[in-house]
Design goal:
151 residues; mainly beta; glutathione-dependent formaldehyde- activating enzyme (gfa); 8-stranded mixed sheet; 3-stranded antiparallel sheet; 2 helices; 32% strand; globular
């Protein structure tokens, strides 16, 4: 993955909710779980973990959708685009659906998760694949490896 031009803006399909990132992703992912398949209406969801202090909503007001538990999935109220997730207990980052950015050219998944639930024909260019989520102790090394990639 190449480094993104920062700051960068993005938004939902209809444009009523706009966001801005002012920090590089710490990891990019493709999730093949059936929940992401259903919420994205696709074979997998793509996301970029953005440090929380580098993420802001600059227009509109997203609403909670999907599952209504500790992990909060945010959508545009009007077009219902799934925009980002705030994982329970991990307030230090926002899991942005990377396709929400206006310029998605430099974003590819570094890891893929829940390959145990992936559709047989779905493939990505991810460097690392996991049957479920990576073990928590693997994330620090994955983030360091991701940050050290050639630009």
């Amino acid at each position: 993955m190449s480094k993104l031009t920062i700051p960068q803006e993005g938004g939902c399909r209809c444009g009523q909710v706009r966001l801005k990132i002012s920090a590089q992703p710490i990891l990019t992912m493709a999730c093949h779980c059936t929940g992401c398949q259903k919420m994205s209406s696709s074979a997998f969801s793509l996301s970029a973990a953005i440090p929380a202090e580098g993420f802001e909503i600059i227009a509109g007001e997203p609403v909670i959708g999907g599952l209504h538990g500790g992990t909060r999935h945010y959508f545009c109220r009007h077009c219902m685009t799934w925009m980002f997730t705030r994982p329970e207990g991990m307030d230090w980052f926002v899991n942005l659906r990377s396709t929400m950015l206006d310029d998605t050219g430099g974003i590819a998944p570094f890891i893929e998760t829940f390959t145990s639930e992936k559709l047989p024909w779905a493939t990505t260019s991810a460097v690392h694949s996991y049957v479920a989520f990576p073990p928590m102790e693997a994330f620090e090394g994955l983030m360091q490896e991701f940050a050290g990639q050639e630009t």
